[in-house]
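I hope you will forgive my troubling you with a question about protein structure. The matter concerns a single protein, recorded as an amino acid sequence and a row of backbone structure tokens. Please examine both parts with care and let me know of anything in them that strikes you as inconsistent. Here, with my thanks, is the record as I have it:
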Amino acid sequence: MLKDFLDANGQSFSMAAEAASRMSSTAPTVQQVVSEHIETLTAASSGTRRTYRGQANIHIYPVLGAIPVDRLTRAEVARWFNGMTIAAKSKKNVHAILSAALKTAIADGLISENVALGMRAADEVSTFEPVFLSEAQMSIIYSALPQRWRLFVEFLENAGLRYGEATALRWQDVEQRDGRVALRVTRAWRRGDDGEYIGPPKTKRSRRTVTLPLLLGDALLGARGDAATGDLMFTRPSGLHLSNSYFHLSVWMPLMKEISGQLGAKPRIHDLRHTHASRLIARGVPLPVIQARLGHESITTTVNTYGHLAGDADSLAAAVLD
């Protein structure tokens, strides 16, 4: 019996002792702890929980899932963490799920230490670098874009809303402010277990009012026609929800394939929002104002994403002191 046990553990007494220790543990496994943590989160939407489940299934459970939570070591977590071949931001998000679950396990009296604390991914270049489109590049896009979608793309470029916010807008969200059209952003499409649904925007600061440029505001009102106040502003030709996947596959990807040689870039739909922010910075709009317009929860997000574009601001600061 002892020989068989040692053979199963590479003839190593230390490995055999560790295996025996795990076999004798009555604590729940890492998978059980993480799963319970995800399902009992009170501030997470159903879509967020589904995302967490998917990340745990792919990245946590295959490596650490079967280990009793009270036998999990920092070395094992470090090897798992370093072995994940995903972008630094994704690695950070997956690690946060495990660390939060272990924190819950401490509160439940299952363990005394969070062995996942203090681990950080090396800085890496994001898989998707923002693309800031010039006016000339936008002209190329508009010249090839079907007329049916021109106003929608102009809106994304010049309003700066997130895609899910823009496609959740209703005509009743329009108001007049000092001769301009303004939009109350109070809703966004979210993803849940049963598909997409309309809920609150991404963060508290995402609930905001966004004022439109004059020409865009006039074009939007001109397109309203006989629509009822509760109707969505932007839909598919059939009147159904203009989901990101539909627009991406039916409109954006074919368009990018057609003009990629002229454009010299491969922008995503979300890059229209980045382009909007870059235009504001180029015209001297302060970053806190841009933060409020984009609905960023923290100025740090705005600075980290767009701060490098504000090169002239430092020269202006120096000029003030001359």
In short: Residues 13-17 have pLDDT under 50 and may be disordered. The chain has 15 helices and five strands. Strands lie at 174-177, 180-185, 188-192, 195-199, 208-211.
